[in-house]
Fold:
Amino acid sequence: MAKPNADTPRLALLIDADNISAKYLPTILNEIPRHGITTYRRIYGDFTDPQAAGWRDKLLDNSIMPIQQFSNVKNHKPGEHAGKNATDSALIIDAMDILYAEKVDGFIIVSSDSDFTRLAQRLRESNKIVVGMGRNHTSISFRHACTSFVNIEYLSKLEERPNVSNDVSDDASDQTDEGITTTVTLTDVEAVVAGIIRNNDSKGEETMLSEIGVGLHNKFSDFDVRNYGYTQLSKLIGDMKRFQLEKRGDVHTVTIAHAGDEQEKVAAFMRKTLKEAGSNMQLSALAQAVYDQFTDFKLKDIGYSQFSQFADSIEGVKVIGAKRQQVRLVKQQ
Structure:
């Protein structure tokens, strides 16, 4: 096993046993090397509770230190974690002590509890990595407070059923084929990727796949290609019809696919539509006709934010009127 180098982030693993089942431990441990190496491994809960029996059998073998928290409330409902507040408080206090000791680069907080949202925010304010790991129902507030968030419920399902479809649907959904809801839809991913490409195009720069990855993680803390049935970002982007992925050696670049060809087709359609309408139309009507005919057409992909500006750029077409609400077919030179 290779030793971590000096640049490998040192992380504190803090697990909320009252909130996360022991069945997810293999998934948690398998995920850790993607983010760094753990120098602290602690788990918090009332391990005298029969419901914690699953954890007791696994802690010694995996070198995880249990932090026992007895209930501060004597009377509680059956099945309720009596020591929940005590457990949360202990985890938060330890996290702050570790932070002030300045011996780690970040934290892995394993919980689906939104009560840890402020802790995650505070740790990030101290320029620390914060990896959240939780189940599918974890609140958006906690997910977005973390540097990155990992859905261990979904990853656990993938480990049980490794053969997952890699098809990207034209109708981008917020639900995977495993029934796990993701807060980041493929439509969201597509919009961010297109925005990065357009920004680089305006500066005359190429867009690298690595830049796409950084941009997506900066925008969405819980973005994970595995949520869509992939193990590599290049496969996800390559399967999106809107983009073209090119490989030169070890470098991947991403561009808008066939934007120039589509622009010419749209221009020809606009001239034909104007001619059939008697050479004059309302600009809004022409725009609607274009979007009805070319359902995947994105104005921003060809460098325009307003349809009127695009129409004016087409040879043989002119936007007219004081309020630029009419469009006319003119004689081509």
